[in-house]
Amino acid sequence: MSERQPTLRERQRSETRRLVQAHAVRLFTDHGYDAVTVADVAEAAGVSAMTVYRHFPTKEDLVLIDQPAQLIAEQVAASSAMQPLVRRVGGALIDAATALTDGNGDEPGADERFLLDCLRLMVSTPALRARHLDSQYALQQAIVDSLGDDASDPDAAFRAQAATSACMAAMHTALTRWAEDDGHTKLPDLIARALAASFGGDAVASHRED
Amino acid sequence: MSERQPTLRERQRSETRRLVQAHAVRLFTDHGYDAVTVADVAEAAGVSAMTVYRHFPTKEDLVLIDQPAQLIAEQVAASSAMQPLVRRVGGALIDAATALTDGNGDEPGADERFLLDCLRLMVSTPALRARHLDSQYALQQAIVDSLGDDASDPDAAFRAQAATSACMAAMHTALTRWAEDDGHTKLPDLIARALAASFGGDAVASHRED
DNA sequence: ACCATCACGTTAGTGACTAACATTTTGAGC
DNA sequence: GCTCAAAATGTTAGTCACTAACGTGATGGT
């Protein structure tokens, strides 16, 4: 509670942002993404349509959540280069999910509940699903870069792309299931199971970091 | 050459469709997807903008190619249920790619060249890439359905989703590489290599259908 | 207290896409 | 060949996402 955003302006700005996003997700969930216009969201939040676009570049960005790309990429870069690719990437994904959904015992908190609402919209709405898949694709590129394999070998780069994309796909399956289960199942466990189903149990079993 | 579309109307319709699409891909490639309006495409093809929308529901559909979902799904359904999931799906993907890029020795034909142009646009343009990833996601659902596992076991369904999505991701990597290589490398080989990099060489090695 | 900056509002515009209606062209029966 | 229903296309008007330009009031450092 010490280093709060100092200036009042920044606090108000992030507050309106949060407000707009909250109203947007609620309206989208209640009436459907396509049936709600940006003007509707603006009116519900008590701002002008232009303000919505100042905070969110597109209507889709009202729902899309920032993937912790930085966190995952660092975890991948820190992993041992001796391990097989899918274990390096898969382990990093599990660790990142653990870090994200950490402090909760069984019931998700308010933040996590909002995240689940967004995820459900992303899975069910075609336009949002497409954008979400593409943002995962961007994250994939970041992970491949952080793998640190020499760029001189195009074949190694291809293998890194293939293995990473497969891991991301498994994680996406876990994410979808997590949203369907309303967050009741632990996300890291779901990811581990998805990875095991894809690459075999031995590829991820010995990951425990005790 | 025997069972041509009988009626003249249908021939003309598919001909204008082909014409519009050809002009669209050419203009998009030359000037960029975002810089070309649907009105531009219509004018280049000598039709009205409304006619473009009659043939293609959205601007993006001018570039997106129909994935042979039916073919792949049938091949998956016909595969032995005894094999591991990734081998069943991966094998079907390789077979489908083989069937698609069949008759060419080294140089791609006109159809394949057009397909490569579309693919390059899909990879480089964010909006098209997103839609393409989502259409692959739809194909994934079709494959999972055709796997024929009992719907009574939700855990088995989850594993099928995870394994299939990972295979699709590997194939997408191969497809991207194929477009980058301008079709010089054989697509089935690329898919096999991507699958091997993800799941290990033994998961796909013994697939040769001599 | 002064003033540059920032958040927000307003307006006008572009472009993707839809709905409704008019027009022409094709195909099938007579 | 003629007629008529259906299909393909054109035209117009409209909605909505999104952008650019400009104005206004509040904020915060000096």
TrEMBL record, chains A, B:
Signal peptide: none annotated. It comes from the Bacteria. Keywords: DNA-binding. PROSITE patterns: HTH_TETR_2. InterPro entries: Homeodomain-like_sf, HTH-type_TetR-like_transc_reg, HTH_TetR, MftR_C. Residues 37-56 bind DNA. The keyword Ribonucleoprotein does not apply. Residues 14-74 form the HTH tetR-type domain. This is TetR family transcriptional regulator.
